[in-house]
Amino acid sequence: MSEGDSGKGEGHRERLRDKFLNAGLQGFLDYEVIELLLTLATPRKDCKTPAKAALERFKTLQGVFEASPEELMQVKGIGPKNVLGIRLIKAVADRYLERKVVGKRPIHNARELFDYLYFNMKDRHRECFKVIFLDARNQVLATRTLFEGTLTASSVYPREVVQAALEHRAASLIFAHNHPSGDPNPSREDIAITRQLVFACRVMGVTVHEHLVIGDNTYFSFADQGYISEMNRDFERQA
After folding, report:
1. Ranges under pLDDT 70 in the chain
2. Helix H or strand E encompassing 209
3. What's the whole-model pTM score?
């Protein structure tokens, strides 16, 4: 890079930084967000090209955040220091959003819960099953990802869910998992798993309030669609 190019690059980076400090990320394109992150670790190199390359490879900003370190470093111009910054930002955002829901009543703060789950789970390449543990006042005690991979009746174990609920002394639970396809409509397996979990938790005196399936900027609610109530009625008929 010539001295003139270096000066232009530094001026561009300064404009990006000033733009962010003055108005946050409003008006930023996704590649510019990635570019700004990359400049933190490589202040004297052009970061626009690797930022655009990363976005092209991983399709979305969330996809870049979810990429593994090995995948990120396959993008020319992204090195270990850049990877640290990208992964750190994602981890900090996850913790921030989680802390916003802990101690809240998600039944009455559905938007914050969805925002947390959506950011945390959207664009993952594999399905993950998250449990939100609630106390007797329906306030969030903790959140945990218990299972990862394609969810089937043989990969989600009600015993482990119940055990985790007892460890957290939870009175009730909310389940959530993502569909990498972006379509939140539940499969037959999703319905079967939810039914097993509702029954297992009821046996132990733990209530299941909800199971959300996270899709592409949307979700499917088992509670809103009447599935949870129907499963509880089935349990009571069989009890």
Report:
1. 1-10, 43-44, 100-101, 104-111, 122-123, 150-154
2. strand 207-214
3. 0.66
**Phi, psi at residue 128, to the nearest 5°?**
-135, 145
pLDDT at 25: 83
Strand-pair category, 207-214 with 172-178: parallel
Q: Which helix (H) or strand (E) holds 132?
A: strand 128-134
Distance from the first to the final alpha carbon of the chain: 75
Tokens of 115: 């925002």
Residue ranges covered by each domain of the chain:
3-94, 103-238
143-185 residue pLDDT tens: 888 888 766 544 778 999 999 999 999 999 999 999 988 899 9
- 54 forms bridges with which residues in the sheet? none
Sign of CA dihedral 183, 119, 83, 30: positive
Residue type, 55: L
For residue 84, what are the CA distances in angstroms to 62, 103, 221? 16, 30, 35
Any idea how long the chain is? Answer: 239
Fold classification of 103-238 is Cytidine Deaminase; domain 2 (3.40.140)
